[in-house]
Amino acid sequence: MAIQIITNGTVSIQTGKTLHVVGLSGGKDSTATLLLAIDKVGIDRVLPVFADTGNEHPQTYEYLKHLEAQLGISIMRVKPDFTEEFKRKRKFISEDRRTKRNKFGTKLRWSNKAKRRALLVLYPTGNPFLDLCMLNGQFPTNKTRFCTETLKRDLFVEMVDEIVQANKGNKVVVWQGVRRDESAKRADARKFSRVIRGFYNFRPLITWSVDDVFKCIADHGIQPNPLYASDLSRVGCAPCIYSNKPDLRVLFSGADGQDIIEKIEEWEFLVSSASKKGRAAFFQGRELAGTKKNTVSELVFWDRHKIGNIVKWVTKPGQFKAGDWDALEVAGSCQMALGLCE
Hints:
Helix content is 42%, strand content 11%. By secondary structure, it is of the alpha/beta class. Helix 5 runs parallel beside helix 9 (257-274) and helix 8 packs across helix 11. The longest helix has 21 residues, at 146-166.
């Protein structure tokens, strides 16, 4: 995976000095961490790095510009480049001649129809989230959460490694906005840890509460990301695969709601086309819209989980009941009959 630097953050470090890298997401914890780093070591030794997934909320991008203007900093924006991965994927599909079947008896080889459909769309779009989903032939799920791993964690680790290699002779400290009360997995997180010689992780918020974080931001005269005032339970991807009904209701009803819906509609078409099965839904990993897998036919399940029907589910008050989908079944069957779900 190649790294593309969208905007250069610049920091001049003298030999023997320590470079402090802050992973910045636009959320409250990373913002507070950035403010602490600047206070502690000075703005000239801090490099904020934002890993752009391509699925961030528009207001988060604006908030990063706000931080740059308010703090007088330059944020390095990076994203992965999957050009080579697309070349390999296209070559594999076009040359696929496998004869074996999986444990369910399904042929492993791409059918000629699926090959033609996928090869029409399998080109890099420049959007990391969409490109990764097209390469995988599906959207992330709670079981295969490749978005966070590839677009955030792996990208940032590779970026930091390049920084370490380019600054040999200098120590590199990565500041992380991690708090122990966030989750059970982070309950035992250490405040300071050595990765390798000259490379360290520092987590200054480790014992902080949410109130401590917001107070820190306010004390610096900075406003937090405005999305925190929108009743969203999480600030990050828009939407996140873990979004719940209230979150989606806020997203879809906001000023950017229609743009987000249209974005997902386009992505579902492209990822479906790039999939061997020809079906993909953004929320396929969630038992949303009143439907569980294996309780209805596979085609009905996929149809109900397309973004158009998710919007209907979100905008209806309360929980869906079985009969609530009766009017939609006719439309769904009609679409499948026309071959639009292939």
